[in-house]
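Format notes (please read before filing issues)

Several people have asked whether sequences and structure tokens are stored in separate files. They are not. Every record keeps both together, in the order shown below: the sequence lines, then the token lines. Line labels are part of the format and must not be stripped during preprocessing.
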Amino acid sequence: MTQRSKSDDDGSLRYVTLGFARGDETRDRTTNLSKPCPTTKTDCKVKINAIMVGDILRITTVQNSHNNRLSPRKTRFFRCNRAIADSVKRQLDINDKAGISMTKSFNALAVKAGGFENLKFIEKDTQNYIDKARHLRLSKRGADALRGYFERTQYKNDGFYLLIDLDDNCGALDPHM
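Then the structure lines:
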């Protein structure tokens, strides 16, 4: 992350310091002492200083002394290592169409894999996939999906009334709600 930078009046960069995102010292920002927030800061001193010389950004200092270790078990959380298999995508689609919540679907996948640590993705990845799939399903047949939604709402709620006139090709002529 950019820790420090300085620009000229015209907006051009003069110098920049890049450092480890969790490298600052920990600061207690908790106002409620009964709910302390865990910190992820490690006071790691890794950083790179660079200065602009003409049109070239010249590196002046490199400090590569980490004070933290990366656990090999945590590499699965890196975005480059996360992927949802096609078979898992199909299962997520089936569960979503059946009305099964995302959390239950994700937990079922974890049980099938033998634990969360054996999954090659996180729950947010599955949520993002389903959001995208829903968007694509809706855009392909948006009018039908919207009509189906209103029909389900009318079925579930006695106070909701829906009336749609269709033409010969099943296109809506005049929706009344």
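For reference, the curators noted about this record: The helical segments are 86-97, 102-113, 123-140, 142-156. Residues 9 and 15 are 13 Å apart (CA to CA).
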